[in-house]
């Protein structure tokens, strides 16, 4: 193969924030038409690098050459004009506008000064088909699930021609079928000579789609390798600077004990069929199922975040009433939501404020906050969890994704609950931090907490749970104990109800 | 690095304070009689009422809400207080404390209504308080039979012009409320919750808090502060009237906004609000001394409000750069 020319050349890119060197003299070459994967632990500098490329941050030092000339975007519009486009991990969609309007927001097709809706919907349908979404272009975005929103973001990026497309963890929220569609799209773009910079924590993906991979650690580049001459363990040790033993820890010594929480006949709008399950002290219970199968909704109903239509909840064999999150938290039940930006964190406030918010009574007396106590209590959790920050006063919005997730963990550890429900606890987090979180879950189980883990990452719950419950189309389609764990079996349970529906429809139309 | 840090602190903390000092210096040079003791106490008296209302307004705006009804509620509070104080059957010793209580309670009840309706039915407070603006004004006109109430007891009147160490007593009351409010916002669980709810209400709710309760409390406190402002107004004017306070909501919102509190909620301080109210007061006073008419003054004040917000957004951007 001929040596391709570099479309992007980064030279000595340095960016510092108070107390943190985000990027330290980074050199990086990206060839035209390649899929270049960026990996690194949380806070390694991936996000800062992207923000510099798309004009959100200015580098303190260094120079970027783009397609042969100096490139220094002053704002995201400059980057878009130059043909560099980013699909962010956090969504930037306008909730009340339709899918079509969101996709073409930057350039709505016009006719005589009015929006040409016919053309808009036509173009949108083409893009929706390309990303494998079967929804109406008129649907308001607020009605979509997280995975669908991610695909809309990708469709939006495809709506305009770009030379460089940067994808920031596009697969974090997608199911395997959607990921396949995404990879097809990437292959097609590559064939059209679009350069792709791909960021992911799922290392196996590097080999599926990547040409080259660059590893960042603590703001410096560790190295760039061709995906043909490198293995996952090698990449991991480049990332963490040491070798990793096992991916999923499982502690044989921790045995589930008495039933802690029992849910009987729970119904809510997403789960019209009654759902019943229980979780024991010291147990890690996994909840599997496709995105939109009602697993998140059921957990939110248990927690009182959304109303439930019926159902009883027993804690240590006593029936309890949960009408709102306040009742749940008061009874020692907590929920770590899947959407940390909108539901988990108060972004523009200091870290310690986010941590102590779950139990201000602990750090106050007669309604007066004890600032010193508050900070020392938060400091302890920050140290225990290894959260990287310049100070406790730093806003959580300035932390990297993984560190933000750890702040969410810290806030619920501060409360000292008996039942902890984690919805996608490791979404968008690197391997090193994931492992730390698993160890933490085991520590909690060992302390006799009941733990529920909702996750789209099947290997993860197969690896760390005692038992798995599978949701399918709003009901529980099966339950599997650790002895009988089998990926295929759980997947078929997850699809079970959807297949039934199709069969029923066929029967109805056939008769 | 050190210069940067200084720049950062200056931008973050001192913006409005510096502006206030600058405006004062300019007026001291160009406006006759601006820099005099008499004028100084005059300004302090003039800003007191707006300051008190703005304290309440800050609480509500920090939550991402707004209270448009403060002017009308002030009128209603003064009418109720005025009718109580001038009631023939009541001895003066009982009438005054009763009137003060009545004013605060009426204000608080109106605030309670605003907070309850907007949280219970999830209606933006803009709409609910717009309704209250009419309700309270109508009620004030109705119960007073659209008449102004004069002639309060002498003790009451004298208190309004009293000074302590040369400082008007009603200004001391306003300043005390600013300090008390700052303490509540900065040091109490309640204050912390207001900031947190203003930033991300859903995250706070999912952390196990009754956010509606805090919101209702903030609106009620805002109403109570209007009740206090009503009493101060009566002390100054020696009358109660159903047509008092028209447009007061705008001055209060202006003070809060100039003071750097975000209309989106979650960010701001009462010190800022106090400085904002001072800037408006000083401008009005200084421009008047320069012989500027009512209308022209209104134009200038309006321009200053817009400029303050523009500068503030620019300041926020600069802050990020120097961070």
Q: Roughly what fraction of the amino acids of chain A lie in strands?
A: 25-35%
- SS class of chain B: mainly alpha
Oligomer: heterodimer
Whole-number tally of structural domains of chain A: 3
Structural class of chain A: alpha/beta
3D shape of chain B: globular
State the gist of this model.
Chain A is an alpha/beta fold and 511 residues long. Chain A has 17 helices and 24 strands. In chain A, a hairpin with a 2-residue loop joins strand 16 and strand 17 (318-320).
Write the layout of secondary structure elements.
The complex is a heterodimer of chains A (511) and B (323).
Chain A: E1 6-17, E2 20-31, E3 35-40, H1 46-53, E4 61-66, E5 69-70, H2 76-82, E6 84-87, H3 99-103, E7 110-111, E8 114-115, H4 117-130, H5 146-159, E9 164-168, H6 176-191, E10 195-199, H7 203-209, E11 212-217, E12 220-226, H8 232-240, E13 259-268, E14 271-280, E15 284-288, H9 295-303, E16 310-315, E17 318-320, H10 325-330, E18 333-336, H11 340-344, H12 351-356, E19 364-365, E20 368-369, H13 371-385, H14 401-415, E21 419-423, H15 431-446, E22 450-454, H16 458-464, E23 467-472, E24 475-481, H17 487-510
Parallel strand pairs in A: 3-10, 3-11, 6-9, 9-10, 15-22, 15-23, 18-21, 21-22
Antiparallel strand pairs in A: 1-2, 1-4, 4-5, 7-8, 11-12, 13-14, 13-16, 16-17, 19-20, 23-24
Helix pairs in contact in A: 4-5, 13-14
Chain B: H1 2-30, H2 37-62, H3 70-85, H4 92-120, H5 125-144, H6 154-161, E1 163-164, E2 167-168, H7 169-187, H8 189-206, H9 211-237, H10 248-258, H11 270-289, H12 294-322
């Amino acid at each position: 193969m001929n040596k391709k020319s570099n479309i992007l050349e980064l030279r000595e890119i340095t960016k510092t924030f108070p107390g943190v060197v985000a990027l330290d003299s980074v050199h990086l070459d990206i060839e035209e038409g390649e899929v270049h994967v960026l990996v690194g632990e949380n806070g390694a500098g991936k996000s800062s690098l992207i923000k510099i490329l798309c004009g959100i941050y200015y580098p303190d030092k260094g120079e970027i050459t783009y397609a042969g000339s100096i490139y220094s975007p002053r704002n995201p519009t400059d980057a878009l004009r130059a043909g560099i486009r980013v699909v962010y991990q956090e969504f930037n969609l306008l909730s009340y506008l339709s899918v079509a309007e969101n996709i073409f927001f930057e350039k709505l097709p016009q006719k005589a000064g009015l929006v040409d809706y016919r053309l808009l919907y036509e173009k949108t349908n083409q893009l929706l088909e390309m990303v494998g979404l079967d929804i109406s272009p008129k649907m308001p975005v607020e009605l979509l699930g997280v995975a669908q929103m991610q695909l809309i973001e990708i469709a939006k990026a495809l709506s305009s021609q770009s030379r460089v497309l940067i994808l920031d963890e596009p697969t974090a929220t997608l199911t395997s079928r959607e990921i396949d569609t995404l990879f097809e799209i990437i292959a097609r773009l590559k064939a059209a000579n679009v350069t792709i910079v791909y960021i992911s924590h799922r290392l196996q993906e590097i080999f599926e789609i990547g040409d080259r991979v660059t590893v960042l650690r603590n703001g410096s580049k560790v190295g760039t390798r061709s995906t043909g001459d490198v293995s996952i363990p090698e990449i991991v040790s480049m990332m963490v600077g040491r070798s990793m033993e096992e991916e999923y820890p499982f502690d044989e010594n921790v045995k589930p004990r008495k039933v802690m929480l029992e849910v009987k006949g729970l119904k809510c709008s997403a789960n019209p069929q009654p759902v019943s399950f229980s979780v024991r002290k010291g147990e890690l219970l996994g909840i599997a199922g496709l995105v939109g199968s009602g697993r998140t909704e059921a957990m939110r109903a248990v927690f009182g975040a959304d109303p439930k239509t019926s159902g009883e909840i027993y804690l240590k064999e006593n029936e309890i009433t949960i009408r709102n999150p306040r009742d749940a938290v008061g009874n020692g039940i907590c929920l770590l939501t899947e959407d940390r930006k909108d539901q988990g964190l108060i972004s523009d406030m200091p870290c310690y404020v986010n941590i102590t918010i779950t139990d201000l009574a602990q750090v106050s007396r007669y309604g007066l906050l004890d600032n010193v106590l508050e900070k020392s209590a938060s400091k302890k959790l920050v140290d225990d969890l290894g959260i990287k920050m310049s100070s406790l006063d730093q806003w959580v919005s300035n932390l990297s994704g993984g560190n933000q997730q750890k702040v969410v963990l810290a806030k619920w550890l501060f409360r000292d609950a008996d039942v902890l429900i984690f919805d996608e606890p490791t979404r968008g987090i690197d391997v090193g931090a994931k492992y730390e979180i698993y160890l933490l879950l085991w520590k909690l189980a060992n302390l006799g907490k009941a733990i529920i883990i909702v996750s789209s990452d099947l290997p993860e719950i197969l690896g760390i749970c005692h038992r798995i419950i599978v949701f399918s189309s709003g009901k529980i389609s099966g339950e599997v104990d650790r002895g009988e764990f089998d990926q295929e079996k759980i997947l078929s349970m997850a699809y079970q109800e959807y297949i039934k529906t199709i069969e029923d429809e066929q029967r109805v139309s056939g008769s | 690095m050190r210069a940067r840090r200084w720049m950062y602190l200056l931008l973050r903390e001192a913006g409005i304070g510096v502006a206030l000092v600058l405006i004062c210096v300019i007026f001291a040079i160009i406006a006759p009689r601006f820099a005099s003791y008499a004028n100084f106490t005059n300004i302090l008296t003039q800003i007191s009422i707006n300051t008190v209302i703005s304290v309440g307004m800050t609480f509500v705006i920090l939550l991402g809400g707004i209270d448009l009804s403060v002017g009308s509620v002030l009128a209603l509070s003064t009418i109720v207080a005025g009718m109580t104080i001038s009631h023939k059957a009541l001895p003066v010793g009982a009438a005054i404390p009763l009137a003060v209580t009545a004013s605060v309670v009426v204000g608080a009840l109106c605030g309670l209504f605003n907070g309850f309706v907007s949280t219970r039915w999830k209606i933006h407070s803009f709409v609910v308080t717009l309704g209250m603006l009419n309700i309270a004004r109508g009620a004030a006109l109705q119960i007073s039979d659209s008449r102004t109430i004069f002639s309060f007891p002498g003790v009451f009147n004298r208190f309004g012009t009293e000074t302590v160490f040369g400082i008007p007593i009603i200004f001391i009351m306003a300043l005390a409320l600013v300090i008390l409010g700052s303490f509540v916002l900065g040091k109490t669980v309640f204050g912390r919750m207001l900031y947190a709810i203003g930033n991300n209400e859903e995250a706070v709710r999912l952390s196990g808090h009754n956010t509606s309760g805090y919101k209702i409390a903030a609106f009620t406190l805002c109403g109570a502060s209007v009740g206090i402002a009503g009493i101060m107004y009566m002390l100054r004017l020696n009358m109660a009237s159903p047509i008092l306070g028209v447009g007061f909501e705008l001055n209060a919102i202006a003070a809060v906004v100039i003071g750097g509190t975000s209309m989106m909620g979650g960010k701001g301080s009462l010190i800022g609000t106090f400085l904002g109210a001072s800037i408006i007061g000083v401008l009005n006073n200084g421009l008047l001394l320069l012989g500027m008419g009512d209308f022209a003054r209104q134009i200038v004040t309006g321009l200053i409000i817009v400029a303050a917000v523009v500068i503030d957004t620019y300041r926020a951007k600069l802050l990020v750069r120097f961070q």
